[in-house]
Design a protein that fits this description.
The chain is an alpha/beta fold and 430 residues long. It is built from 13 helices and 16 strands. The structure holds adenosine-5'-diphosphate, aspartic acid and magnesium ion. Adenosine-5'-diphosphate (ADP) binds next to loops.
């Protein structure tokens, strides 16, 4: 056994059907002589479907039909992977029981709490299937409940990791499995509070989970297997002519992902940087490809890199009586931003007004407006896009701005940003 621990993360696209799960097995088998922790996301778009279940339930509608589809999808994958899927299907069925109980009662708890109890099931289902399939195909694998590893605070839908306890639990539970020569297979995205209620770490949080385990176990490297060859100079869904970055620094990766590059969850980099653990972004479609290696500072000079963040809101805040926006106003505004965990992507101020561009997630913008409108005049525009261009030049700015209405803009030496109305037909890609 090679003691060089690797932590792998397989996302929803890599386990979207039975064929894909076979591919995940093949990739993992190549590394079977290493110590391996494998983190698996919910299959395909299961998390979106579970969100629908939550919405139906919260609006008092019947959510069982939607849940049944999710169930049948997973049973179908189990049936495609196993000649006799009964045992696995029974354990999948047991996983649904708690949600079914919950859905039978009228909703009394907060939306965010209910969301986490329901949506977390996607990961519990996918990991049971993958673990059973690994075990049936020559990879000794132990399924571990990530809620026994990751302790969070009790802010549902965006739990913050309680590191000391998480390190203790992760080492205590996973090291014996690795020592015994088995793969430790667990969920991304989920954790639990000190009262054992399930929490989630934020959408797309499985990358972050893998980084948490890498940190706790001092992994030699972490690999995220994606449907792209590595980190590209822009999202290939929106842009043509993107190229792969062979190597980038933690700093560059954190700047890109904070401002919307959806290829890695934004919280992933810090734990890895803190322990100098290299992060590899590699393709599950072309596992022999070199991917992108993310490490400490490199001498790399970068081409322009474009990130687009959708669902932005531009909030204009001004004083009601024409007084200056002074420090005590800022302090009040920011205390509200902090308590809502609202992500600010750009800010500007004039004498009597303050403008922030924030992620318009959940109902946070409304809650923010409610909290400050007694003291300030507030208006906001929603459905906007934020473009962030690192290592920009004039021609890329010009081509990206072409025929767009620019609502706010900022230029720094290495980074420029602008906020624009989303006009899909004007994207570079036809
Ligand atoms: P996962 O299944 O692991 O959660 P994601 O769908 O979250 O994978 O991330 C992969 C996707 O990220 C790609 O399909 C691509 O469309 C998108 N993406 C956004 N920005 C970039 C970028 N700069 N480089 C590569 N992919 C990007
Ligand atoms: N399944 C979760 C999501 O879709 C977490 C993840 O895949 O990273 O957001
Ligand atoms: Mg993702």
């Amino acid at each position: 056994m090679n003691k060089n621990l690797k932590v792998f993360k397989f996302g929803g696209a890599s386990v979207k059907d039975a064929e894909s799960i076979k591919n995940v097995l093949d990739i993992t088998k190549t590394y079977k002589d290493h110590e391996l922790v494998v983190v698996v996301s919910a299959m395909a778009k299961t998390t979106n479907h579970l969100e629908k279940v939550v919405d139906l339930y919260a609006s008092g509608k019947d959510a069982f039909a939607e849940l049944e589809q999710i169930k049948q999808f997973h049973y179908g994958i189990a049936a495609a992977l196993f000649e006799d899927p009964k045992e696995l299907q029974t354990s999948l069925s047991d996983t649904f029981v708690e949600i079914e109980w919950l859905l039978e009662e009228p909703m009394e708890d907060s939306y965010d709490y209910v969301y986490d109890q329901i949506v977390s099931v996607g990961e519990l289902l996918s990991t049971q299937i993958v673990a059973a399939y690994f075990n049936a195909n020559g990879l000794s694998t132990k399924w571990v409940d990530a809620r026994d590893l990751v302790l969070t605070d009790n802010i549902y839908r965006e739990g913050w990791v309680q590191w000391e306890e998480t390190i203790k639990r992760t080492k205590g539970k996973l090291e014996p499995i690795l020592k015994a020569g088995s793969i430790a297979l667990t969920q991304g995205f989920i954790g639990s509070t000190s009262e054992n209620f399930t929490t989630t770490l934020g959408r797309e949080g499985s990358d972050y989970s893998a980084a948490i385990f890498s940190f706790c176990l001092d992994a030699k490297e972490m690999v995220i297997w994606k449907d792209v060859p590595g980190i590209l100079t822009g999202d290939p869904r929106y842009f043509d002519n993107v190229t792969k970055l062979d190597q980038i620094s933690y700093r560059e990766a954190i700047e890109m992902t904070y401002y919307g590059a959806k290829v890695i969850h934004q919280k992933t980099i810090k734990p890895l940087q803190n322990k100098n653990i290299p992060l590899l972004v590699r393709s599950f479609i072309d596992p022999a490809g070199s991917g992108t290696v993310i490490t400490a500072e490199t001498d790399e000079t970068y081409p322009p890199i474009v990130s687009v963040e959708r669902d932005q809101a531009l909030i204009r805040i001004s004083t009601k009586d024409f007084s200056f926006v002074a420090e005590h106003h800022m302090s009040f505004i920011f205390s509200q931003i902090a308590s809502l965990r609202l992500q600010v992507n750009l800010m500007q101020n004039t004498a009597i007004s303050f403008v922030v561009c924030v992620n318009d997630a959940n109902d946070k913008v409304d809650r923010f407006a409610n909290a400050i409108e007694e003291k300030f005049k507030v208006n906001f525009e929603r459905g906007l896009e934020l473009y962030t261009i690192r290592h920009y030049n004039d021609s890329i700015i010009k081509s990206l701005k072409d025929s767009k209405l620019i609502l706010a803009e900022e230029k720094m030496p290495k980074t420029t940003q602008f906020v624009t109305k989303a006009v899909p037909t004007m994207r570079l890609k036809s």
